[in-house]
Structures are given as C-alpha cells and as structure tokens.
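Dear colleague,

Following up on Tuesday's group meeting, I ran the structure prediction for the two-component complex that the binding team flagged. I've pasted the input sequences exactly as they went in, so you can double-check that nothing got truncated or mislabelled along the way. The structure tokens for the whole assembly follow below. Feel free to forward this to whoever is handling the docking comparison.

Inputs:
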Amino acid sequence: MEIPYNVEERQDTGMYNAKLGIWLFLASEVMLFGGLFSAYVFLRMGDITGTFSSGSQELNVPLATFNTLVLISSSVTMIMSWVSLKLGDIKKFKLHLGSTLLLAGVFLVVKYFEYTAKFHHGIYPDTSTFFAIYFTLTGLHMIHILGGMVVIFYFLVPGSKMMKTEPERFTNRIETVGLY
Amino acid sequence: MSGHSVEDIKKSVKIYIGVFASLAVLTVVTVAASYLDLGSGEAFFLAMIIASVKGSLVAGYFMHLFTEKTTILAVLGLTFFFLITLMFLPYIAFIDHTAI
C-alpha cells in the first residue's frame, strides 16, 4: 500500500506528511527538554548549600565551547546536504551528510572525555543536585545525537537507494532528518 | 521549503554561511560573558538572551521557520505557550514560598 503525501502537499496542511510529523515530534522534544530546564531552574533556586556554584567550577569551559562550535558546524553541513540534493549534486550531498555524521561523532568523543574526567574525579550523578541535572540533561542530549547518527547513517548507506528511485521523496526525507 | 526554486536555494546558501558565522561569534560572546563579574541572576538572564537569539537564528533560517506554513507556526506557538508556563512554575513556587 502506497503511503500518501510523501512528496505532494496535502491541501489541508499545505505540506507533505513527514514534515508535519517531524514538527509534532520536535514540539514534544521541546516540552521534554523544557521540563528538565524547568527542573534545573527549580533546583538552582532551591540550592542553599551552593552546589550549583561549586559544581559549575568543575565544568570544562574550553571543551564545551569546542563542542558547541562542532554542533553549529554540523547544523551547517546538514542543511548543505539538503541544498546539494535540491541542486542535484549527489557527490556534495554525500560529502556534507558524511561530514555531519563525523561531526556528531566528534561531539560524542569529546563528551566521552568530559564524562570520564568527571568519573576519575569521583563526580557522578549522585554527587549533588547540580551534577544530577547536569548528567540528565547532557545524557539525554547525547541520546538525541545518537538517534540522529543512526538515521543519518541509514540515509547515507542502506537508505540511499531511494535517491535514484524516488529522488523527491528522498530529498524530503533528508529535510526531515535536518529538522530533527 | 520543498517548493523553493533552484535560484532561491542558491541565494539562501549565503544566508546559511552568514548565520553560521553569527552563531560562532555568539558562542564566543556567551563564553566571554561568563567571565564578567555579574550576579548569578544577571549572568543567567544574559546567557538566556544570547541563547534565545542563537535559537531563533537556527529555527528561523536553518529550519526555515521564517518562511514556514501557518500549521507549523500554530503548533509551535502552542508549544511555546506551554514551555513558558513550564519555565515560570519555579518562579510561581518561589513567590508563593516568600509570600508565606
């Protein structure tokens, strides 16, 4: 059975189905992370023992800055992979999507070093409320990135067949991956 | 964005590069601001303002929200309302606590 509105826009929504689907999912993610940010504010406001100020001193600012720049770069390579598909440049598409996967890997490797450095110093989620929310937020973000890497790998290798059979549908799929 | 022409997409590449540069600069500004001698409240709000600008740039240009359909904007508007409500819950608790 053919799934409807893969390429053509629905009259009522004005877009193909997957786009509305991914935006609804992203809305749920905003609420998931929002709940945790709200918990962060709540814990910080109730922090009478000073664990937030002392805990934040343990964070590696240069590494975190580097990782932020890695994430920003990956968002550019991701959108450029979609642009390349729109322009019909398959070679550049693969280069940009591959770079996105690589940058996501770099992010996780840096995070691995950050985490292990903390474990070596005896810092764990049960060390303080600051590190409880720190590991929860960054851990959830890592799961989000891992999920993205799996999907990107799929479209780069086994799922790339669709590029030849249904190019427009494939381009829309890459757009939804980018939105994620 | 699926309906945009090749010419439109070529033009938007320059915008993407500009947004990338802006995000990189704002990241450096965030780090520099963390070294300023500010109170924790002021530092938090400054970081939130910079993060909001960065988030708007990503959502507006990379995720095409500035040119997106009303259906999606309506969904996100509703999400934003509930997000703000969620973020204000700690402050409501704080006001309630200090009023006692």
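Chain B touches chain A at residues 1-4, 6, 9-10, 12-13, 16-17, 20, 23-24, 27-28, 31, 34, 40, 58, 62-63, 69-72, 75-76, 78-79, 82-83, 86-87, 89-91, 93-94 (CB under 8 Å).

Cheers,
M.
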